[in-house]
Amino acid sequence: MFGDQSEPVTLTRDCKAVIIPAGEEAQLHAGQLVFITQSLGGSFTVYVDGWLYRIAGVDADALGKKPVEPPKLPANAGDSDVEALVWEQMKTCYDPEIPVNIVDLGLVYTCEVRRRDDGSRNVAVEMTLTAPGCGMGEILVEDVREKIALIPTINDVAVELVFDPPWNQSMMSEAAQLEAGLM
What we know:
This protein is α+β, with helices and mostly antiparallel strands. It has three helices and nine strands.
């Protein structure tokens, strides 16, 4: 079904997954044959018996893959270094059906990094979805929250899903439009 783009893998242990695009949790079992159709940003989209599932990077070992290393900051990192790393972390978040990260898709509307008195930082993100009714919305929001929270010095991450203005394809970067075949 997926030609050269899929990789057959037998799960080495049970693991949680999320049904795409419904966003419902499921359990995949050890010994089950899955086909990896996308492995971007540390998470995986797999095809199993006519269904697509998203497997989080923390369960990469169930697929025989190594989990992604957490982000690091140099000891003398300033606010601009932290903000740049926040944006890089968001670029590791992918729509499970489109092989383009959420930043290049134009789904991130705002990102504010604020330093606290104790030197730690709070991050506030406003983002949207390509379609308001997408069942994967909360999964993507949680992915953004978790990946930003891995950054040293980050104290709190608030990610809000907004739908004004509505997303459209013109919000995509040129690279994303090329990747999606829109140019």
